[in-house]
Write a structure and sequence with these properties.
The protein is of the alpha+beta class. It has two domains: about 120 residues, SH3 type barrels (Roll); about 300 residues, Alpha-Beta Complex (Fumarylacetoacetate hydrolase, domain 2), CATH 3.90.850. About 20% of the residues lie in helices and about 25% in strands. It contains eleven helices and 26 strands. The strands form seven sheets. Strands 6, 7, 8, 13, 14, 16, 17 and 22 form an eight-stranded mixed β-sheet that branches. The chain has a five-stranded antiparallel β-sheet with strand order 4-3-2-1-5. The longest helix has 15 residues. The protein starts with about 30 loop residues before the first strand and ends in a 6-residue tail after the last strand.
């Protein structure tokens, strides 16, 4: 697991002044990675690092010969249109580049005059999905979400017996993953109305939010070789925000016996910035289970995972209706929670994914599943917040929502803060529901 080092020093200051504003997500202690280009151009996408309200163009930096050794090897890999080559280099290379960038962006650094020419305002750029995502696996790591959903369908037995023993997951669709700003059409599919004799093809009336984190795999593993939990986090570059949109009415009809299909594969939105596990080191917490619950099987357990397997990432969901957008109003916050409530850790997800010999590859994406907290106001999906649609959400402008309507925009945010550490954040993950594209 990443340890604290000089890059985490809360006293560090950058020569980029905007890195010091109190509400910035991107101080020098963060330095997340993305791929970008100047907005409205046909430039090639290339790697960048966020610092304050700027993007450091890593392709431009790679031409300057400022770094050497492993840091330079990693830097050259970021100059491509996707970060897969960089991801595949492994945790020592990621850390070496992050340290070199921290030193070069630090106040008083000799590289300032040279690197200033490699900065672009974030307001002037656009982003792409940061990796070629070969495979996408979505997990179900919040016991609170699983229990809330279970109560809607199985009031007397909400949690299935395997949940506390095994990290549950399913394989999703990578082709429909888009970066923040994604706009997608309301999906169609089969639904079965109560009392009907046959299903019908219809537009979903229950499009929902799923507040998640995305876990980007860095270095992979060979087919047939599982990753032990003690090495699992060495295979993870970092995290992003993820909204795994769901069509609940399609899901109710199709999910048995093989699980999610059309209810999930129409869109998934991620934030552009990958916050490294190393940057998140100050926000580690112990991972514990209630004493009365089954403890993890040995292959899913380690001293390190128990000591610091959890991460305190604050998470927030906001909804902006078309009326709110026209009035220039900010999204109404409908949920706040923390990743610390997850029942399964990053290391446990990756270890279980590979225990059967499954080979992960650089750029693969794991979703945490909806990250609901222990109280209803911390629920990360509308189906929970409205208790299956029975209790509409009342928004500050007088509107109400049960599920998402056409034109609604959803904004996810995430950040970490505590005394004695620099506040770092993930930026935003925004997606918008459009009307159904057409009928068949």
């Amino acid at each position: 697991m990443p340890m604290l080092n000089e890059t985490h020093n809360p006293a560090l200051r950058s020569w980029v002044e905007s890195a010091h504003t109190p509400d910035t997500d991107f101080p020098i202690q963060n330095l997340p990675f993305a791929v970008f280009r100047t907005r409205g151009t046909s430039e090639a996408f290339r790697g960048g690092v966020a610092i304050g309200d700027q993007v450091l163009d890593l392709a431009a930096v790679a031409k300057l010969g400022l770094f050497s050794g492993l840091a330079d090897t990693a830097l050259q890999a970021t100059a491509q249109d996707k970060l897969n080559a960089f991801m595949g280099l492994g945790c020592e290379a990621w850390s070496a580049l992050r340290l070199a960038l921290s030193r070069a962006l630090c106040a008083g650094a000799s590289e300032q005059a040279t690197l200033q020419k490699c900065l672009l305002p974030q307001s002037a750029v656009e982003y792409d999905v940061p990796a070629r995502i070969g495979d996408y696996t979505d997990f179900y790591t919040s016991v609170h979400h699983a229990t809330n959903i279970g109560k809607l369908f199985r009031p007397d037995n909400p949690l299935l017996p395997n949940y506390k023993w095994v990290p549950i997951g399913y394989h999703g669709r990578s082709s429909s993953i888009g970066v923040s700003g994604q706009r997608f059409h309301r999906p169609q599919g089969q639904t079965m109305a109560p009392g009907a004799d046959a299903p019908q093809l219809t537009a979903s009336k229950r499009v929902d939010i799923e507040l998640e984190l995305g876990v980007f795999v860095g270095s992979g593993n060979a087919l047939g070789q599982s990753v032990p939990i003690t090495a699992a986090e060495d295979h993870v570059l970092g995290l992003c925000l993820l909204n795994d949109w769901s069509a609940r009415d399609l899901q109710a009809w199709e999910y048995q016996p093989l699980g999610p299909f059309l209810a999930k594969n129409f869109a998934t939105t991620i934030s552009p910035w990958i916050v490294t596990l190393e940057a998140l080191a100050p926000y580690r917490l112990s991972f514990t289970r209630p004493a009365e619950d089954p403890q993890p099987l040995p292959y899913l357990d380690s001293d390190a995972n128990r000591a610091q397997g959890a991460i305190d990432i604050q998470l927030e969901v906001g909804i902006a209706t078309p009326k709110m957008q026209s009035a220039g109003e900010q999204p109404a916050v409908v949920c706040r929670t923390s990743y610390r409530h997850a029942y399964w850790t990053i290391a446990q997800m990756l270890t279980h994914h590979t225990v059967n010999g499954c080979n992960l590859q650089p750029g693969d994406l794991l979703g945490t599943g909806t990250l609901s907290g222990p109280t209803l106001d911390q629920a990360g999906a509308l189906i929970e917040l409205t208790q299956g649609g029975k209790n509409p959400l009342q928004l500050p402008n007088g509107e109400a929502r049960v599920f998402l309507e056409d034109g609604d925009a959803v904004r996810l945010r995430g950040w970490c803060e505590k005394p004695g550490a620099a506040r770092i954040g993930f930026g935003e993950c925004v997606g918008t529901v459009l009307p159904t594209a057409g009928k068949h």
